[in-house]
């Protein structure tokens, strides 16, 4: 790998190196008063060496009906040789060759993220076959085989840990520099490095099906994708080059000065303008890839820089997506805490409702038996579930479901019980929990509540989004309004839209767009798919384990770290700001040089030297993107463990009845 890179570097600088040596030799001969004509011959030779690749490039472009800046330099250098300006011809072609070498070196440097990703791809794997450890090429490992990963070795496949424990450096995939502990059942990725321990991994993805391979493919495509501004510059150069040639001819004829016409051709070359955009885009995408932020291409980078509204799904994005039982409140005489929890868990045992799992998990942890399944389970969409237990109807759900069950049972009394249940439901919902009334044959037994822990860095993410220039952060959720408002108050979002179905989320995103916003939608890519597709930028989080997200999202954040989102927005803004700075430098250079030529005093060689200096300025400016920004990640926010659910002052003391 290193030998190939070294060969590439030598080839890149061979032409300007030989040309520069010939120019230096010519100047020395003239200085020492050598044989007449030798100095000019060496200058012509230098122009030929440096100019031949330029002429060939111009011919290839013309054959494709493209008139580019290579043609301007070719005509100017050829004309300079014809009229005897050998030094000018050599200097122009030499400086142009140096500029090309610098551009190639810079693009190679800005593609370093891709090169590093390719470098971490492991070549061999140790596989357990017939009870023996066999070393084989990583690409030949079969899905389902057991791969052994020892301390210091690279993981050669995607897979699940079947045995052992250890720590893996996942920086190549997620951008995280801190090793992650892995034990049985955990997912591992190809290209990560063991920093200690011993793992037995069952391969689930090999070769081109690994997460690393998909990332390499994605970054490769993204760095080659053209930004909208770059496409505009291509259209601009399509008429700019012929216009400059025409202007040079007209001025040359009017002034009867061939040198003026040729100098104008050289001066008007928009070299810095041509490289200003691609070098910025490649550097920005490369920086993102190093930090675990995959951006689909230049067009999406530019769009991301305009994001001023971010729509966030609540469950699994602002919250951890793992609801926990927080309250069990018996309300019926003789009903105990454990009785109510057991009954609610039994009713939910045959339900697919997402809140069934925390009830069953809590009951099991409390040692409460939940035997078998209900005799019958009837989901009530949007309200809860009704189960038949020992011949009785047990309902677990909203107040609306309670009213429906009471009507079914023909109950007309019990207003006080309903009022107490409603009071508890309102207080729990206002505290950010999802309350569920438990009723048997229409009679209120109590209320159980669950809450999804708010992510520790959710509030910091919203603050950083605002700091990055995002004016509106909107939470979209299918949860009820009071719960949504409680979560929103903790994280600091600007708008809340609750009780939404997937199609409602799509409409919410479309409404933001109609209000003039450029919208990024962050979601899980499943029930949020319509909204993600409608948004200007769809963002997938935790994409390391999701092949579809890596391939389809406009921006894929490889970890579940919320702080990567404002990082991505800030990176996009920095990249576009750099592109604009580079364009201004390039245009200003061309404008000032053309004025200098028309007023006199700027020669062909001086003009080309200034041009190459402007190219260098553009390159150095773009290279700054490869550094992590000063406002980069500083780690997770240190938040009190309880703050994830509720702040202490907001807690409601309803877990058990008072004595």
TrEMBL record:
<feature type="transmembrane region" description="Helical">
    <location>
        <begin position="583"/>
        <end position="602"/>
    </location>
</feature>
<keyword id="KW-1003">Cell membrane</keyword>
<comment type="similarity">
    <text>Belongs to the cation transport ATPase (P-type) (TC 3.A.3) family. Type IB subfamily.</text>
</comment>
<dbReference type="InterPro" id="IPR044492">
    <property type="entry name" value="P_typ_ATPase_HD_dom"/>
</dbReference>
<keyword id="KW-1278">Translocase</keyword>
<keyword id="KW-0472">Membrane</keyword>
<keyword id="KW-0547">Nucleotide-binding</keyword>
<keyword id="KW-1133">Transmembrane helix</keyword>
<feature type="transmembrane region" description="Helical">
    <location>
        <begin position="236"/>
        <end position="255"/>
    </location>
</feature>
<dbReference type="InterPro" id="IPR001757">
    <property type="entry name" value="P_typ_ATPase"/>
</dbReference>
<feature type="transmembrane region" description="Helical">
    <location>
        <begin position="261"/>
        <end position="286"/>
    </location>
</feature>
<dbReference type="InterPro" id="IPR018303">
    <property type="entry name" value="ATPase_P-typ_P_site"/>
</dbReference>
<dbReference type="InterPro" id="IPR023298">
    <property type="entry name" value="ATPase_P-typ_TM_dom_sf"/>
</dbReference>
<dbReference type="InterPro" id="IPR008250">
    <property type="entry name" value="ATPase_P-typ_transduc_dom_A_sf"/>
</dbReference>
<keyword id="KW-0067">ATP-binding</keyword>
<keyword id="KW-0479">Metal-binding</keyword>
<dbReference type="Pfam" id="PF00122">
    <property type="entry name" value="E1-E2_ATPase"/>
</dbReference>
<dbReference type="InterPro" id="IPR036412">
    <property type="entry name" value="HAD-like_sf"/>
</dbReference>
<feature type="domain" description="P-type ATPase A">
    <location>
        <begin position="121"/>
        <end position="220"/>
    </location>
</feature>
<dbReference type="InterPro" id="IPR023299">
    <property type="entry name" value="ATPase_P-typ_cyto_dom_N"/>
</dbReference>
<dbReference type="InterPro" id="IPR027256">
    <property type="entry name" value="P-typ_ATPase_IB"/>
</dbReference>
<dbReference type="Pfam" id="PF00702">
    <property type="entry name" value="Hydrolase"/>
</dbReference>
<keyword id="KW-0812">Transmembrane</keyword>
<protein>
    <submittedName>
        <fullName>Haloacid dehalogenase</fullName>
    </submittedName>
</protein>
<dbReference type="InterPro" id="IPR059000">
    <property type="entry name" value="ATPase_P-type_domA"/>
</dbReference>
<feature type="transmembrane region" description="Helical">
    <location>
        <begin position="41"/>
        <end position="59"/>
    </location>
</feature>
<dbReference type="InterPro" id="IPR051014">
    <property type="entry name" value="Cation_Transport_ATPase_IB"/>
</dbReference>
<dbReference type="InterPro" id="IPR023214">
    <property type="entry name" value="HAD_sf"/>
</dbReference>
<feature type="transmembrane region" description="Helical">
    <location>
        <begin position="12"/>
        <end position="29"/>
    </location>
</feature>
